[in-house]
């Protein structure tokens, strides 16, 4: 039996509209109730939809794929109906959704991947790399992967060749990713507050959306440049301190790394000698249960001081123990007497 939709007349029953749009009948009715979709025309006892409804459903599906909520979509469609247009807004979304790196993904088979890591066939590490998104499975294949960031994989290969276990590499990446995501969130909050807030107070028109897209293009590289510069500065300072702390006594004076100098302090009149720099804090992993217990006891702000005080007390107790037993400060002698 032929239907108006089959005849291409642009008059559809709800079942025809559902089939053509890929939207369930229940969802179509929900969109109508929420005002996202115009009400159908009533012909006799039947509701009849037309191409306007079909186009609107496709617009909604496209916006949902771009990450918009139904509430936001309703506002955008209201702006569209008022003549504002969606072209500029969707262009802005395309700009934000575009690649934030010039890297091109590559494909690697499992044998090639194993060879890159010196022949180590650690399938658990492969699984973890898939979870982290360092590797992505290629649909329709078993042992073939897409590598979104060849540079990131190359870093892992070099670290493993230098002796770092695969588990330590993926663990470090998890930690690093959390910190980088925090930095990106702060940068977005910062730019939203000072740059993009005026575009978010109402659905932007085409001119405003085009201006916002141009700003995204200008600001896109700034986050990367800032992180690169700050990481280089921090690495130089920390690496110098690290080398001095571990090798300073073994190096002749001429070979010891010079104190890093802050450029802001390099100019101006000479200053009196400064006291020795404070000891650099060292991060020590603690069991989550231990941290939770201390936090419940002294509160989040008191955790570092409590742990430091407990460690100091334990060290002092062991030192007094050693002195009382006549072992001085020699742990070997103390342990020998205990055994």
TrEMBL record:
It holds the Pfam family MerR_1. Residues 245-280, 320-339 are annotated as: Disordered. Gene3D superfamilies: 1.10.1660.10. It comes from the Bacteria. Residues 11-79 form the HTH merR-type domain. The keyword DNA-binding applies. The keyword DNA-binding applies. Keywords: DNA-binding. GO terms for molecular function: DNA binding; DNA-binding transcription factor activity. SMART domains: HTH_MERR. InterPro entries: DNA-bd_dom_put_sf (IPR009061), MerR-type_HTH_dom (IPR000551), MerR_fam (IPR047057). This is MerR HTH family regulatory protein. It comes from Actinacidiphila paucisporea.
């Amino acid at each position: 039996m032929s239907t108006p939709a089959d005849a291409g007349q642009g008059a559809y029953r709800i079942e025809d509209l559902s089939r053509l749009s890929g939207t369930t009948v229940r969802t179509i009715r929900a969109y109508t109730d929420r005002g996202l979709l115009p009400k159908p025309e009533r012909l006799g006892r039947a509701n009849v939809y037309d191409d306007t409804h079909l186009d609107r459903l496709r617009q909604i599906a496209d916006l949902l794929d771009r990450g918009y909520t139904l509430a936001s979509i309703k506002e955008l469609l209201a702006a569209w109906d008022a003549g504002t247009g969606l072209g500029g807004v969707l262009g802005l979304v395309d700009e934000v959704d575009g690649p934030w790196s010039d890297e091109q993904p590559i494909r690697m088979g499992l044998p090639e991947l194993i060879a890159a890591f010196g022949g180590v066939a650690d399938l658990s590490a492969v699984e973890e790399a898939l979870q982290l998104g360092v590797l992505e499975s290629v649909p329709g294949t078993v042992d073939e992967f897409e590598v979104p960031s060849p540079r990131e994989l190359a870093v892992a290969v070099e670290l493993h060749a230098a002796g770092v276990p695969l588990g330590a590499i993926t663990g470090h990446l998890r930690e690093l990713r959390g910190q980088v995501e925090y930095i990106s969130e702060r940068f977005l909050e910062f730019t939203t507050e000072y740059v993009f807030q005026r575009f978010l107070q109402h659905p932007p028109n085409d001119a405003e959306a085009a201006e916002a897209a141009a700003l995204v293009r200008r600001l896109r590289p700034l986050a990367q440049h800032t992180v690169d510069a700050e990481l280089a500065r921090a690495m130089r300072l920390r690496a110098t301190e690290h080398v001095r702390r571990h090798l300073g006594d073994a190096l002749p004076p001429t070979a010891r790394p010079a104190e890093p100098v802050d450029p802001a302090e390099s100019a101006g009149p000479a200053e009196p000698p400064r006291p020795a720099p404070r000891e650099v804090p060292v991060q020590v992993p603690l069991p989550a249960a231990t941290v939770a217990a201390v936090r419940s006891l002294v509160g989040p702000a008191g955790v570092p001081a409590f742990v430091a005080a407990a460690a100091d007390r334990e060290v002092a107790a062991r030192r007094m123990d050693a002195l009382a037993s006549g072992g001085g400060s020699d742990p070997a002698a103390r342990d020998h007497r205990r055994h």
